[in-house]
Amino acid sequence: MLDHNARADLDFVLASRRRWADRLYPALTRQVAEAGTAPADRKDAAPIVKAQPVYPWFAWSERASQKALWRAVTDATVDSPAIELPQSPKGKLTLDPDLALPEWYTDWDIHVQPGGIWRADASAHVYEMGAKLVMMGGNDDYTFHTSFTNTCCDGLENPTRIVDLGCGFGKSTWPLKRAYPGAEVIGVDLAAPCLRMAHSKTEGLGLDVHYMQADATKNTGIEAGSADLVTTSMVIHELPRPALEGIFAEAARLLKPGGRMVFLDFQYTGDPVRDHAVTEHGTRNNEPFLPGMMSADTCALAEAAGLTNARWVAFDERGPGRQERLEWPKRPEWHFPWAVLEAEKAA
Questions:
Q1: Residue 206 sits in a domain of what CATH number?
Q2: Which end of the chain is least crowded, N or C, by CB within 10 Å?
Q3: Residue-range definition of the domain harbouring residue 96
Q4: Minimal CA–CA distance to 230: which of 267, 170, 185?
Q5: Burial category of 130 from C-beta neighbours within 10 Å (exposed 0-12, middle 13-18, buried 19 and up)
Q6: Residue 96's pLDDT is what?
Q7: What pTM does this model have?
């Protein structure tokens, strides 16, 4: 339970992030429109956007509010206990103390979270609370991930195994187990603290999931051709090109013939200002590989790995979830261009 001061700090950060999204971004787009030179694409938009009076405030507010978020969350979680693992678990936790974490993962404080998410149990507590606030209050009950499962990963007939790559503390994994209780669900991640939290939280929900520590961009050790579904949620924009190719290769290796790959991430929308803003988000939020992923031909990479019918569709987190095409609802405020990359393993 948060005390009054911690709650006030978090409310202030949340309000700041909302004003960045619903006041500063619309002001920026309005100033660009009034400048009289409509940008043709995101690269053309860059000098026009940066010339607007509100731009320095928009850019500064995004990074400053992100830093303030982690300060507030760190203060709020400073007394959190060590993660306790269940004595008689339904599921399984497999950690690899000898796993070498890749430099592209450890060299950056991703999301500007000090120290990353992999150092200690405290890192997992901070990340878990921050993951709610970064969605500006719209994911308190993990409705975002439930919608992803229900609208993008639906329709499987009696699946026997589902693998969630880059599962973090399990927020994208336990909805899959709820949707398919008869399937073996495996969550894979690099961060041992997050996996301990995932195991603890999932057991508390009465669900049996196998969490394992492995590099999802390499051979995870899970049996080849054994999965009906392989998912990721907000993972591939964090990967440099070799690792991006690696995660597609591992998804293809894991899938059964006829199995599905479903990766939730970002894509460009065709709106030059929004596309420029999300490109710069990679820099301001310490996500250096985001622009490279979004500019890559990820459908071609998926097919080069052995998958077929690769395509992106939009994902509307505030509405029906998965869309039939790569088209987003028109909204004046800032919101991320969520999208889903789908592909199949040839039968």
A1: 3.40.50.150
A2: N
A3: 87-345
A4: 185
A5: buried
A6: 97
A7: 0.95
